[in-house]
């Protein structure tokens, strides 16, 4: 009986952790593989996106910090608030990466705050650039 209780508590802890989704990732967490194929629209240059100070691209950072709540540019918390560049510009006048960084630093209801201790300004800007280039 006690073993079944321990297993049940462990399963609930895993589910709760997965439901937290966008919460801060552990510093020791392994970085995603560098061989991830980009789905972003190519920039005006043919060079691959430059990695951030952490060595990750905007796409990799988005997948690590944002994709759980914003799969494919959607929004699992508030479905009407997608990451579409057009929708963000129309709805909130968000038109450049710095605007996205401001939202990451001081979000509205339903979104976790991503301060500089969690995501550096350089990495946050890479995420903003990726979002605007990927979700028209």
Automatic annotation (TrEMBL):
The keyword Amino-acid biosynthesis does not apply. Residues 73-83 have a biased composition (Polar residues). InterPro entries: Cyt_c-like_dom, Cyt_C6. Residues 1-20 form the signal peptide. Keywords: Electron transport, Heme, Iron, Metal-binding, Signal, Transport. It is found in: Cellular thylakoid lumen. Residues 22-56, 73-96 are annotated as: Disordered. This is C-type cytochrome.
């Amino acid at each position: 009986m006690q073993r079944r209780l321990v297993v049940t508590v462990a399963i609930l802890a895993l589910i709760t952790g997965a439901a937290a989704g966008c919460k801060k990732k552990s510093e020791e967490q392994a970085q995603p593989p560098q061989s991830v194929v980009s789905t972003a629209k190519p920039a005006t240059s043919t060079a691959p996106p430059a990695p951030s100070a952490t060595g990750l691209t905007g796409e990799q950072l988005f997948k690590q910090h944002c994709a759980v709540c914003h799969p494919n540019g959607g929004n699992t918390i508030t479905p009407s608030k997608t990451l579409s560049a057009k929708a963000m510009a129309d709805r909130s006048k968000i038109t450049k990466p710095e605007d996205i960084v401001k939202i990451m630093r001081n979000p509205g209801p339903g979104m976790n705050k991503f301060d500089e201790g969690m995501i550096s300004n350089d990495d946050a800007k890479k995420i903003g650039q990726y979002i605007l280039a990927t979700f028209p």
